[in-house]
Amino acid sequence: MPWLRTGGLGFRSFFTSIKHFSINYKGAKPQRRAKKIMTSQQINDLSYKVIACAMEVHKTMGPGLLESVYEHCLFEELKSQGINARCQVYVPLFYKGKELEASYAIDILVEDEIVLELKAVTDLHPVYEAQVISYLKLSEKRLGFILNFHVPRMKEGIRRFVNGL
Hints:
Blueprint: H1 11-18, E1 21-22, E2 31-32, H2 40-61, H3 67-80, E3 85-95, E4 98-110, E5 114-119, H4 126-139, E6 143-148, E7 158-162
Parallel strand pairs: 5-6
Antiparallel strand pairs: 1-2, 3-4, 4-5, 6-7
């Protein structure tokens, strides 16, 4: 089909390459859309909503399940509250300017601003904290949380991390 030809790009990469552009119909070249930047107050307000969603999931499901179960439940709770979120968001890894085949996966990325690392463990190891700090730096996000669902009360399982907020 001639209308599906993408000039050498694969069908998927063609749409991936154009999705970040908006077209100016006055004859100008396409320009990148300006990323909507949230203020610190907006991010903090959003973080309260995210924590409320996590508490609702914990109240409904209780402790003792697998991390993947909590991930699905929290994603659904965020969606039901009208909050945009993506699961298993891959962050590329660069070494000396070269992109490596390895990458990190953020459990849930909320509104393209808040990194959520979900856990269902009895003890939070310092490696988990280093993991979230690394995700924040690599993805250039300003706020992240470890949400450990294997606790009697959810507020005991929340750790907040800030990267220049």
